[in-house]
Design a protein that fits this description.
By secondary structure, the chain is of the alpha+beta class. It has 15 helices and 12 strands. It has a domain of about 100 residues. The relative contact order is 0.15.
Amino acid sequence: MERRFELRMDALLEECQVSPALFHGMTERLARFIEPFAACLERAEQKDHALIYVSGLVSDLDRKNTESIAYRHDRDRLALQRFVGVSQWDHEPMLMQLAKQVGEELGEPDGVIVFDPSAFAKKGSESVGVKRQWCGRQGKVENCQVGVYMGYVSSKEHALVDVRLYLPKDRAKDRAHRAKCHIPKHVRYQTRHKLSLEMLQQKGELLPHGWVTGDEEMGRSSRFRRELRELDEKYLLAVPSNTLVRDLEVARPAYCGTGQPPKTPFVRVDRWRENLRRSAWTQVDVRDGEKGRLIVDVASCRVVAKEGRRIGPEEVLVVIRRRGDDGTVIHDYYLSNAAADTPLAEFARVAKAEHRIEEAIQRGKSEAGLADYEVRSWQGWYHHQTLSLMATWFLVQEARRGKKMDTCHHDSPDPRRPRLVAPRRLRLRWTHAHRTRTHTATGTKPTREAISLETA
């Protein structure tokens, strides 16, 4: 290993030293954390099961399913499985409570709401919503379930706040599948965009925000962008490189004197980008990243986009150029209904927030068992997902508390309190998501200079 990488690894491990004082009283804090969520449940045993299950999700179990959690806490496995898989309790009030807490603790006027579908590979076809469809985790069409997640990002932190299971059209019409998986009668086929809009309308007011963003799957739909405009939402949505746009800032072709005056032809956004002059790019520093300062180049232009025969209203095309981990130059394309004079740094900030939800989903999978469920029914899937989102939110709160080095639940941080440092031989290695948050918090100076993309 090169010396510079060894130094960087040592710096990261140094940041991962955890004070034992941070864990003092964690069990009591978890019990208090569960109380407002458990209040949504009717029976005492359900409240107890909720606490046990979330405790297992935030534990160090390798496989965080009901069986492992029951054994860890010496509980009846079947009772816990019934609670998650078949027990009749409404998960929606818990998700409302979750969104309320996230909005109150992380909310900022310029916060960003992010939508992102995420797939869970599954064997067989018995589980609810499973079919062969695109699985982003494996990068191919695979047998999987797809959840559409709603996340919230501010300068304070980022967290998942809601989720919807995408039910493919053929599965929604399959009576045998509906009966076997106990899909409620009122549930009908909805696109992933409709599911996103449903979450936005239900919980958007609880999350102070100035932007809505999402990946290419969200942005490619002109109808979705139109519906966001109708809701008076300001968006910056990623679009594929083959999206057709007409540049409104170039001179029109010469008029020959007969017929309709010619218009600028539509071009793919990647072709438009290839013709940009070097002066069209503006360098933007979007704060420290995990591997040092993150510098991107941004260009924008007023355009109208075309999808099929539909030509949309005026939007802003934003192109962000960045360097990947392997050194290659990556171009991301976005469409926005923001004002054309919006600062490019603001577009870059929101685009960075769009990538945060991927970190949040990975954090849920690696730290709170988001993908470790073994249920097949509709309610079982939602029950596990809801409890996992709650567990992830608890870990976010613990991480924020750890950054302040405050060992008291309610007291303000005391700079005079001595900091306890674990011995070097007992260093604890966090997951990738934890390393990212710890590095950002400590403000460690980067070990390398920022790389400009000017000559890329």
